[in-house]
């Protein structure tokens, strides 16, 4: 791949420290930092302890830069994101939030998919993330087939639109207790491994997003407000650009990344789920995937 590859990681103090710890542990165990031209930690009002951890990582990798905005809020986030977009306007950028949990082989699969689909209409790539809008969109039929009664008790069109806390909790229970990911992956083959963004229906969540200069040039700079002065989120601006330019969006269904939850469910899930159990589950999954591909076992 000829283009620069850049990763920007948005981190804040909103979520529990354990969540931050799991994110970093999985990031470092699954990711070859040398593949990136630059890695930015965009830190919005994080704790001194979090910042110290990030600087300890930075000292080991010359391509890492830590950017800190001490005041919380969208304005500060947009300033940091716009800095990266301006500096790397033509790069392949992977944007990740610090409540996503990476799995083995994620980077290789994403970059290969980009090489396969890059072009003038390319918009974005995502892995399958069970708890985000497109993840639920993709898994809907599987849930309805395998867990119809209980699924229909928690899902409605309104619940899909807002990804209600009850639905997020239910999905995590299926991941941890019913081997949801392994069972779903068993249904995926080379003929059905891609899912395409529907410009009239889909909602692209940006807790994980791979994009290039096409989308960068369409959204830069992120605006702090709309014409009426209302806050306009970066996720809304991305979806507006995707629809306006009819860019192609693709989810790679055999590449799994987890998102802990949306803010509306954080208190419920942080109290109901054991972070250590989540970490053990994902690390066991990663070990089994690495063991199944011995020729690539040494690669993150």
From TrEMBL:
Domain of life: Bacteria
Gene3D superfamilies referenced in this protein's UniProt entry, alphabetically: Spore Coat Polysaccharide Biosynthesis Protein SpsA, Chain A
InterPro entries in UniProt: Nucleotide-diphossugar_trans
Protein name: Glycosyltransferase
Protein species of origin: Desulfovibrio sp. U5L
């Amino acid at each position: 791949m000829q283009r620069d590859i850049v990763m920007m990681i948005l981190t804040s103090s909103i979520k529990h420290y354990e969540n931050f710890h799991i994110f970093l542990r999985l990031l470092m165990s699954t990711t070859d930092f040398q593949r990136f031209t630059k890695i930015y930690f965009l830190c919005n009002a994080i704790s001194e302890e979090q910042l110290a951890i990030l600087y300890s990582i930075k000292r080991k990798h010359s391509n890492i830069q830590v950017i800190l905005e001490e005041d919380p809020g969208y304005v500060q986030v947009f300033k940091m994101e716009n800095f990266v977009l301006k500096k790397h306007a033509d790069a392949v950028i992977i944007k990740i939030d610090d409540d996503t949990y990476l799995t083995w082989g994620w980077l290789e699969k994403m970059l290969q998919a980009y090489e396969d689909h890059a072009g003038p209409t390319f918009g974005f790539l995502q892995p399958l993330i069970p708890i985000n809008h497109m993840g639920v969109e993709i898994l809907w039929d599987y849930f309805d087939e395998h867990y119809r009664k209980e699924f229909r008790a928690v899902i409605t069109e309104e619940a899909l639109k807002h990804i209600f806390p009850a639905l997020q909790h239910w999905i995590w229970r299926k991941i941890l207790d019913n081997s949801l990911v392994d069972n779903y992956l068993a249904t995926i083959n080379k003929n059905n491994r891609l899912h395409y963004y529907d410009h009239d229906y889909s909602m692209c969540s940006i807790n994980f997003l791979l994009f290039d200069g096409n989308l960068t040039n369409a959204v830069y700079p992120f605006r702090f407000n709309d014409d009426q002065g209302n806050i306009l989120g970066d996720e809304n601006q991305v979806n507006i650009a995707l629809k306006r330019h009819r860019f192609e969006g693709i989810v790679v269904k055999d590449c799994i990344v987890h998102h802990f939850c949306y803010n509306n469910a954080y208190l419920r899930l942080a109290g109901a789920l054991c972070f250590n159990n989540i970490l053990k589950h994902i690390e066991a999954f990663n070990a089994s995937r690495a063991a199944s591909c011995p020729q690539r076992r040494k690669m993150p």
